[in-house]
């Protein structure tokens, strides 16, 4: 690769990031991060009319119908909720379960959640490592406390189960995978991105109802739908306001396909052809000879 094609600048977002965003010689910006930071990027870059590709937060729903295969659904939804301590923008943080199987799902889901081991991620037997910082750990914990104050029930994890860690990990920013139920859709835990090992489980009755509730947040990044009814899967997937919809799976990706979100989850798409079009310019040249 020719010298100068790729340049790496180290620094904080407030210093290095803002300097690049505001520099007139930087023609476009591809950003992955929080919606709040993206808003600042849009404000700072607006005077220059820069091209933007923004991959932002999510409040991703899993919709589980009563004909779902729970033997596949439960372990996959566990992974989608708690992988990487929930610190993935694609993680599931709202689980809608059809009422006919709600009790069975919750019982099995909570039992499996309690089996997840928290500790040093270098240990191959560990499922959940530490969160990114002390400040973020306290932020995630505060959401659980807010949910309890609003009348929600914590089924397992933070505040109800004890966390046992090896001596070398005692001061780490660890948190148990946490499942919350009996929570209202308007609760902060159901509306705001938590970005931690916390997920909420609620019941629904009809397809029409759950689509409306799943879409009832400002985000629209990813969703999962679980059902054995192919017609239903297509109907629901089309109506969900999500840039990515997985059916009977999670995080199955082909890098040739577009990646990105709707609403407050981002602007634009990346991946293969979409990335090529974003990082290049189309030019029309007319020649008379």
Automatic annotation (TrEMBL):
- Locate the active site: 55
Record SUPFAM superfamilies: ALDH-like
Spans through the membrane: none
The record's GO molecular-function terms, alphabetically, read: retinal dehydrogenase (NAD+) activity
What InterPro entries does this protein's entry cite?
Ald_DH/histidinol_DH, Ald_DH_C, Ald_DH_CS_CYS, Ald_DH_CS_GLU, Ald_DH_N, Aldehyde_DH_dom
Q: Could you list this entry's UniProt keywords, alphabetically sorted.
A: NAD, Oxidoreductase
Residues in the signal sequence: none
The record's Pfam families line, in alphabetical order, gives: Aldedh
All copies of the Aldehyde dehydrogenase domain together span: 1-285
Protein's GO biological process? retinoic acid metabolic process
Q: Which family does it belong to?
A: Belongs to the aldehyde dehydrogenase family.
What name has this protein been given in UniProt? Aldehyde dehydrogenase domain-containing protein
């Amino acid at each position: 690769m020719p010298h100068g094609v790729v340049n790496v600048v180290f620094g904080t977002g407030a210093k290095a990031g803002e300097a690049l965003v505001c520099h007139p010689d930087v023609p476009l910006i591809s950003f992955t991060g929080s919606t709040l930071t993206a808003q600042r990027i849009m404000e700072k870059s607006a005077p220059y009319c820069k091209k933007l590709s923004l991959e932002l937060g999510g409040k991703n729903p899993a919709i589980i119908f009563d004909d779902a295969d729970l033997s596949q659904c439960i372990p996959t939804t566990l992974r989608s909720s708690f992988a990487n301590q929930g610190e993935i923008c694609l993680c599931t943080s709202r689980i809608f379960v059809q009422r006919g199987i709600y009790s069975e799902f919750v019982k099995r889901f909570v039992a499996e959640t309690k089996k997840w081991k928290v500790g040093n991620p270098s240990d191959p037997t560990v499922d959940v490592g530490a969160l990114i910082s002390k400040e973020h750990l306290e932020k995630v914990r505060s959401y659980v406390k807010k949910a309890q104050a609003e009348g929600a029930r914590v089924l397992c994890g933070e505040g109800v189960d004890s966390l046992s860690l090896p001596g070398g990990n005692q001061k780490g920013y660890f948190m148990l995978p946490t499942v919350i139920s009996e929570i209202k859709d308007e609760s902060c835990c159901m509306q705001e991105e938590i970005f931690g090992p916390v997920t909420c489980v609620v019941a629904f009755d009809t397809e029409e109802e759950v689509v409306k509730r799943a879409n009832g947040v400002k985000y629209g990044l990813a969703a999962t739908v679980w059902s054995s009814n192919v017609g239903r899967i297509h109907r629901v997937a089309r109506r969900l306001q999500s840039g990515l919809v997985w059916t009977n799976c999670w995080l199955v990706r082909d890098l040739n396909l577009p990646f990105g979100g709707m609403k407050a989850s981002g602007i634009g798409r990346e991946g293969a052809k979409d990335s090529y079009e974003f990082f290049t310019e189309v030019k029309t040249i007319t020649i008379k000879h």
